[in-house]
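# step 3/5: fold
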Amino acid sequence: MEMVIAAGFFMLCVAVCVSAFVMADHLSRVGQDVNHGVLAAESLVERVKVGNTGDFGTYEPDEVFGTVFENWKTKDPEAKAVYQYIKDGGEVRNYQILWDKEWNSYPDTKELEKNGKKLAYVGLITTGVKDQMKEIAVVIFGYGTYGDQGYKIYHLFAEQYVKP
C-alpha cells in the first residue's frame, strides 16, 4: 500500500514538472514572437515613413483571417479610434506583408508558396492622410502557428507630418 502511494505521489510530481516545462516552452515561443513582432512593426513604420512600400503586397485577407482582423479592430477601443480616424481622412491605403516561420518576408501567398513555405505571420499596414498628418497603423498577427487561425502579436500606431 505504501508503495502505491509513493508511486502515485511520484507520478503527480512528474506530471507537474512536465506541465511546467511545457508552459515554459510556450511562454518562450510567445516571447520570441513578440520580440520579432515589435521589430517588424517598427521596421514597417519606418519604411512607410520614407515611402519604401514597393515590395509590400496589397491587403487580400482570406475569410477566416479577415474576420480575426475585423474582430480585433472593433474590440480594441484604441484600434477602433485610430482606424476610424484614418478612414475619415481619405486616401486610405492598405498593404500586407507575409512571413514564414523563420520571419522571411514575402509580398503575397504566391511568392510564399513558390518558395515552399507556409504562412506563419501577417503584417497589415494601413495609412491615410488627415490634417497634414500621415497616420500609420501596423498590426502583426500570428497565423496558424499554434493551431488557431490568427492572434494579435503586436500593434503600433504612428504619425508623420506631411508638408503641404
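# step 4/5: annotate
Residues 19 and 25 are 10 Å apart (CA to CA).
# step 5/5: archive (pending)
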